[in-house]
Fold each of these.
Amino acid sequence: MAATSAAPGVPLGCDSEVGTLRTVLLHRPGPELQRLTPRNNDRLLFDGVPWVARAQDEHDAFAAQLRRRDIEVLYLTDLLTETLQQDDARRAAITDVLGAHPERADMPIGSARGTDLGDPLRAYLAAMLADADPAELTVLLTAGVRNDEVRSGLATGSLVTTMLAPETFLIDPLPNLLFTRDSSVWLPDRVAITSLAMPARRRESQLTELIYRFHPRFAATSRTHGHHLEHVEGGDVLLLAPGVVAVGVGERTTPAGAERLARLLFADGLAHTVLAVPVAQQRATMHLDTVCTMVDTDKVVMYPNVADTLQAYAVTPREPGAGGAALELAIAPAEPFLIAAAKAMQIDTLHRIDTGLDPVSAEREQWDDGNNTLALAPRLAVAYERNDGTNARLEEAGIEVVRIAGSELGSGRGGPRCMSCPVRREPLPG
Ligand SMILES: NC(=O)NCCC[C@H](N)C(=O)O
C-alpha cells in the first residue's frame, strides 16, 4: 500500500473551497475512455470521442502541476486495486455490479441491467470477476465488459449473450470517473458518498463507497449520505466557508437530495447554513460548479449571464422542539445568491469575477469550463488555458492562474474542479 499510505500532519478533510490543498483524489483517464464511440458517447455523457493518449498526457500535466506544489495525488484506480485485495471488498464489488438493479429501469438500450443478464450469464460473469486479480478486477469494473468479450467463453447456453448485439455492455464502462468531484465530497472531516443522477454514472459512487469503506487509509473516516439516497452530485456542493455549504439543485441534485444533505449536515453539527441554489436544468449548467467556483475566501469566478438571476434559499436548523422532536428546517425566502452567500459567510461582499470579456466570449468560455477552477490556496487556482478572457480577468483581480491544457479532457464537459476531489485542505485561519 506504499502508493497511498497516510501522510502526516493536517488531518483528512476540507472545511472550505480554498484552504491550501494537501491531498487530492484524481482519476487518470484509462481504458474506459477507449469504450466511447460515436454511437454511445451521448449516453455516456461525453460530447465527443476523445483522443485517449492525448487526454492522458493532459491529465499527467495537470497532476504534475499539483505535485510541484507538494500536493499529494491519489489515484482512484490505485485505491480501488488496493481495496480489492480484501475479500469482503471483492465480494461487495461483485454483488454491486451484478446485482439486480430494479431501480435502473430507465437504463437505455445498449447496456444490460443486472436484471437483464439472466442466470447463466450472471454466473459466468461472477466467476470471471472472482477469478480476476485486484488489478484486473479494477479494469473490469471501470472499463466494463462487452458481450463479444465473453460470448465464446460460456460453456452453458445463454440466450442473452446469443441474442444481444456484440457491442452491448454487460457491465457498463465508467468514462466519467475522470470527474472525481462528483462521486464523493469531504464535509468537512467525513466523506459524503453521493448519489449520482444519470444512469451512466450511478455505479461510480458504489466504487467510491467501497474505497472509503474498506481502504485502510480511510479506516478512521466516517461516511455520510450514500449512493442509495436521494440524488446529490459533488459538482453541486460548494464549501463557501466553514459551516456554509451551497448546494446547486438542477439537472443532477434534486430538492430532496439537497434537503437530505442539509439534514445530515445539521444533525452532525457540520454546517450551520445550507444554501439551496436553483440551477437551470441544461447540459451547460449541469452542476453549480459549471457557473461558479471560489478562487479566494471572498471571491468567486462566475458566469455573468446567470449572476444577476441566481437565487438561493438559506436553510438552517430550527431550534429543537420540546421533547427532542426530529430535526426541522427553517427555510428563508429566496434571495440573490451573492447576497445570501455573503450573509451566511458573515462577510460584507462575495466578490464576483466574470467569465469571458463580453456575452459571446462568456458563453463560449462557460461552455469550456472557464468557471470550473480548482483552488490550490487562496488566490491560486488551476484553469484551462483555452479560456483566455476569463483567465485574464482572474489575473487582473489578483488571482494566480495555473494554466493546463484540456482539449481532450474537456470533451467530457468538465474542468479542473470537476476532475479533482480534495481530500485534505489546510483549515482556513479562524
Ligand atoms: N462537476 C462537474 O461539473 N462535473 C462534470 C461532469 C461531466 C460528465 N460528463 C457528466 O455529464 O456528468
Note: Residues 146 and 348 are 56 Å apart (CA to CA).
Amino acid sequence: MVSKKIAVLPGDGIGPEVCRQAVKVLEAVATRFGHRFEMQSYPMGACAIDATGNPLPDETLDACRAADAVLLGAIGDPKYDNDPSAKVRPEQGLLRLRKELGLFANIRPITAYDILLPHSPLKQDRIQGTDMVIFRELTGGIYFGAKGRTDDGEGAYDHCVYSRHEIRRIAHMAFQSAAGRRQRLTLVDKANVLETSRLWREEVREMAHQYPEVTVDYLLVDNAAMQMILNPKQFDVILTENMFGDIISDEASVIAGSMGLLPSASVGAEVALFEPIHGSYPQAKGKGIANPIATILSAAMLLEHLELNEEAALVREAVDEALNNGVLTKELNTTAPYTTEEVGNYIAFWIADSSEKQWNKNNVEIGLSTII
Ligand SMILES: NC(=O)c1ccc[n+]([C@@H]2O[C@H](COP(=O)([O-])OP(=O)(O)OC[C@H]3O[C@@H](n4cnc5c(N)ncnc54)[C@H](O)[C@@H]3O)[C@@H](O)[C@H]2O)c1
Ligand SMILES: CC(C)[C@H](C(=O)O)[C@@H](O)C(=O)O
Ligand SMILES: [Mg+2]
C-alpha cells in the first residue's frame, strides 16, 4: 500500500473531461491495489486567468511543488488564440510551470497499434511496427529566449539560445533511453543554418563516445519531417530542441491514428508532470467526443515514474482492451462511437475488476458504482 499526493491541473477546453477519466482510472488503480492517491485539482491556464488574472496562481505552483506528481489536461482558449495582442495568455502558465519545476525533458512515445493501422491516413506497411520516443528539450530555446518588438514597432524577435549544460542533461537521458532500446539515437536539428543546432551537434558528437553501443544519426529537421511520414520505423530515440520537438510530435500522431492517443512525461530536477501532447481542442469541449486515452496513458507514465510498474502495466492492458474491442471515441470509431466518459468508464472498470468482463454501455453505472 502506498500513499501519494497527485496535483491535478484540468485546464481548459477538453482538459477537464479527459482529466476526469484519467483520475477515475487512477482511483480504480488505488482500489485494486489498496493504495491511497490524494488527488486535488488546481486552476491553470485560461480558467485561472478568469478566476485570478494569473495563468499560474501561486497556490497552484505551490501545490505542484508539494506533490509526488502532477497530472495535466490541457490549456488554451480561442479567446486568446484569436487575440494576438493579449498580454496575459494561458500558455504562459504552462511555460512558467515547466520552467519553475525544472522540467527540461519532455518524453513523447509514439506507437503504431496494429488494431488502429487502418485509421492512419498513411499506408499500413509503412507504419506497422513503429515504436519511437521523442526526447524534446522543454525549458530552453526559442520558447524562452528574449522576445519583443523592435523600437520602431516595425519588427519582432524571438531569440533562440542554448547552453552546453542544457543540451547535455537531456542528451544523457536520450542516450540512456536508446541504450536500453534499439540503440539508435537521431539528433534532429537545423545545423546547416542555426548556430544553436551546431552546438547541439558538437555536444552530442562528443557525448557519443560515452555510449559506444548507441549509433548516432544527425538529421536536419526539414528532412526529418519528411522521413517521419515516409519511413517512421527507422526511428528509435529522437533527441531534439524545444520547438522542433513540438512540431514533429504532432506530426507523429498521424502514425498512431489520433492526437488523442499520445501521452507524455515532463521530467527534470523537481516533481514530474504528465500530460497528453494535444491541446484543449476547444471545438470538442463538452461534446463527449474527446479521446481520453492520451491522458490515461499519461497517468500510466505517472505510475511508472512512481515505480508502480505493475499498476501501470494494468492500465496499459486495459487501454489495449479498449482499443481491441473498439471502445473508442468517434475519430477512431466512426460507426458506433463511445463517449469520452464511456471510454474512461470501460478502462476504469476493467482495472477495478479485470476478472469481470461483463461491461457494456448499459451496466457500466452499476459496475462502476464502487469507484466513481
Ligand atoms: N499542452 C497543452 O496544454 C497544449 C498543447 C497544444 C495546444 N494547446 C492549446 O490548445 C488550443 C487549441 O490548439 P490546437 O487546436 O492547435 O491543437 P489541439 O491539440 O487542441 O487540437 C488539434 C486537433 O487534434 C485533434 N485532437 C486533439 N485532441 C484530441 C483528443 N483528445 N481526441 C481526439 N482528437 C483530438 C483534433 O482533431 C483537433 O482539431 C490552443 O489554445 C493551444 O495553445 C495546449
Ligand atoms: C501550448 C503550448 C505552449 C505547448 C508547447 O508548444 O509546448 C503545446 O503545444 C505542447 O505541445 O505542449
Ligand atoms: Mg504542441
Note: Confidence is low (pLDDT under 50) at residues 362-372.
